[in-house]
Amino acid sequence: MRNYTLSDDAEEDLRNIALYTLDMWGAEQLKEYQTALNEKFEQVGRGEALERPFSLKLPDVHVTKCRHHFIFYLTEENNQPIILAVFNERNDIVKRLLSRLS
To answer: Which domain holds residue 59?
Structure first.
């Protein structure tokens, strides 16, 4: 059983990452990247991921990194983390995340 929740937007991000990775680097690289992301999600769920708050104004939103992607998630006391977004480091991550939070 998962110790985190994926938002619908995060699931869409993962589908897009999978399609892009498969197209650019093939099935073996996709499998490797999916494994790395899943391991990072599990770390987030266990509270073991190296993280930092996204913003002083949004203290419950945290960010961690997995290879070339930033993972943004919401933590609330006594609840599973909710993964909000998985953005490539080349994206305008602040603008994209703020649009999801509004």
So the answer is: 5-101
